[in-house]
Amino acid sequence: MHPIVKTVFQRLGLGVVTLFIVSLIIFAAIELLPGDFGQAVLGQAATEETVAAFRRELGLDQPAVWRYVDWIAGVAQGDLGTSFSGRASSGVDRSRPVIDLIAPRLENTLFLAGLTAVVAVPLALFLGISAALYRNSIYDRTVNALTLTTISFPEFFVAYVLILCLTSLWPIFPSLSNISADTEFAERVYRSAMPALTLTLVIVAHMMRMTRAAIINLLASPYIQMARLTGASQREVILKHALPNAWAPIATVIAFNLAYLVVGVVVVEVVFVYPGVGQLMVDAVSSRDIPVVQGCALIFAATYIVLNLVADIVGIVTNPKLLHPK
Amino acid sequence: MKKEQYLLGQQAKYRRGQIDRRQFITSAIAAGLAVPAALGLASSVEAATPTRGGLFKIGRRHGSTTDSLDPATYENGYMQNLAYSYGNHLTEVGADGKLRGELAESYESSDAQTWVFNLRKGVEFHNGKTLDADDVIATFNHHMGEDSKSAAKGLLSAVTSIKADGPNRVVFELSAPNADFPFIVSDYHIVILPASGGQIDPTAGIGTGGYIIENHEPGVRTLMKRNPNYWKENAAYFDEIEKLALLDVTARQNAIMNGDVHAIDGVDPKTVALMGRVPTLDILEAAGTLHYTFPMRLDVAPFDNYDLRMALKYSIKRQELVDKILLGHGALGNDHPISTSNQFHAGGLAQREFDAEKAAYHYKKSGHSGAIQLSASDAAFSGAVDAAQLIAASAAEAGIQIEVVREPSDGYWSNVWNKKGWCACYWGGRPTEDWMFSSAYTDDTEWNDTAWKGTDAANKFNGLVKAARAELDNDKRATMYAECQQLIHDDGGTICPMFANHIMAVSKNVAHGEIAGNWELDGNKCNERWWMA
Predict the structure, then answer these.
(1) Residue in chain A nearest B62 by alpha carbon
(2) Which domains does chain A have, with CATH numbers?
(3) Has this prediction a pTM greater than 0.80?
(4) CA-nearest residue of chain B to A93?
């Protein structure tokens, strides 16, 4: 078997083990939440009998171990369970499967993450490489200062500044990212522009500086000096000789930022009222809709694991030393 | 005087279309108005005349992915507004705060125990079915069944039987007389839905209302289009409604300032003055029944002591709380839950003021010493912790030491409220006195958050509430309810320092008549009451 394929399988196996441990942590953490769905839904109006009726109906009166086994067995078969919400009060059960709740939201989140990545990753690479190319020039300093400024502000502040500039003073984009499943692609891009722009400003600095640092780090290596002695230009040195060796750290930081785009943008979603999965999870936590919380957390964990796996593979493939270990 | 009356009469005629614009202006000039004034008057009448058409976009501070279309589960303003759009109720509270029949043309009772509702004829549901008594009965049964978890179940617990008397009459039998029963059936949960086989389909979203639900994404948006067969003549002027859940206050305020929506609720009192400067907007305020309370439980020491309760009631600067917590957007409370917008508000009851001497006197008489704990969290209402600190500061002036305990917001309603001796709380208010009292003050409700029972005053209060419920004479009821308010004000465990206003922002492109105060956004009926200017 090719060593890469072997590594991939090894990593996938480890990923499943990680996911299993994460599922234990998720379940334990949710057990620690005070209150339950019945109390959260009924709020001030909760009485002992109605809460007890809810608990019985939802199986919350079963021991925790049993509920965990029940849940994880379902997940293993690809069934994330049924949401607690949407239960009609007189017999007709119209509660929705968790997957039906999460899927359209996750699609929106992935769309926003994709749109942001399409802009941010090339931009960050370009800025990082060009900054390394013209190290310590005014260009390098300006790019550094600007990206560090945008990453230093909290996301919501960047978002509000953009709203002020691009929707109030010069109305170019809408301030509400009001999209739905049947929104056309061009319209969707237009309406998602503001959150995508905000997220781009937030993540570019990290990737750009990592690219720059990785390349500059290599420029001190003896083989780069050798390349210079052969008469290669600075541009050739960086693109042909330094960059291929810098892919591993760059891929890691890109993977990290992409994962962040999927799991951590709830603040931006709230500011632009973007119907993403982060908002869904926050709603679910506050209403104690446990199956949805568990489903979201598990999907987030899987996203991290898969993206890190991809970064590792990129690191191995681009590094012959790792590709052919002795 | 005569001229003004004549002009008002002419305006009314013009509004109703009995005279045209030329006739109206001629008559106004004849009455002595200058030409520009007459033209202006004509335009103002036109602006107040509803026109049909347009897409009305509305941003709400509520809405959750857990919202179900089942009326039994409605618990926030978003779903309430939706219920009022796609459906109707037997009765409704008008913009003037008075009750009138909606799907019931009229209702009557001779003894307040048997209530007869005469249904409007020829009303059609969105699916083409004609409204009859079976629909009403099936709807009520949905909320009353043994396993029902409906929020309206408690309201209807006194109903012993519902019978049809022909296709257009429904007769309710109650276990005890209740003069307010027609108010109770206006509760937003009890939206009349079509029955088939004696059962309603609670989550189908089909009603008799002015708007048909096109697309409902819980916690995100709802799209509705006008019901062409709507039975109400002068209502539902917009062609389409788009309702968005905009939970973040800044996002919501941005949306209306940028023109993305036409109306929002829940404007932040801190920025309302700035919002008022936006030229395209109007800020609306309506005094409502929402009130913030600090219930003291009589079953927890030291609050079982009458003098201690009095001491605390005298050590609160109510005006300061209204000014600092509500930033002036509210009204003073008088330690009872009945607001000025209720029918039987006891106006004669003297307003209780901060009085350090009386507080110190009662405190000394109570014999209590040491710090008194006050639990608060912003889950109770925004600014509750600050309000508790203000109370601690003003009580200190009277020599009473209050220790503010900051509680977690999560689980506040299950772990703190109705459990701890003294805490912060809010009540959305109820349209009638009986409803409010029997929700939180009588001895038979689980939400009696002051545990006020057993004292002489409480016994008297419980008797009065029962007697007033059975009384059909409004003058007698006014006297009884005034006494009830007095009893809570003096002996009760609640401190009610303030009633909050509903603050809303509405685009100048949208016009409306008088605004109801029972809920935000014109009693949550803006969709069918407002129109494009």
Answers:
(1) A283
(2) 106-319 (1.10.3720.10)
(3) no
(4) B203
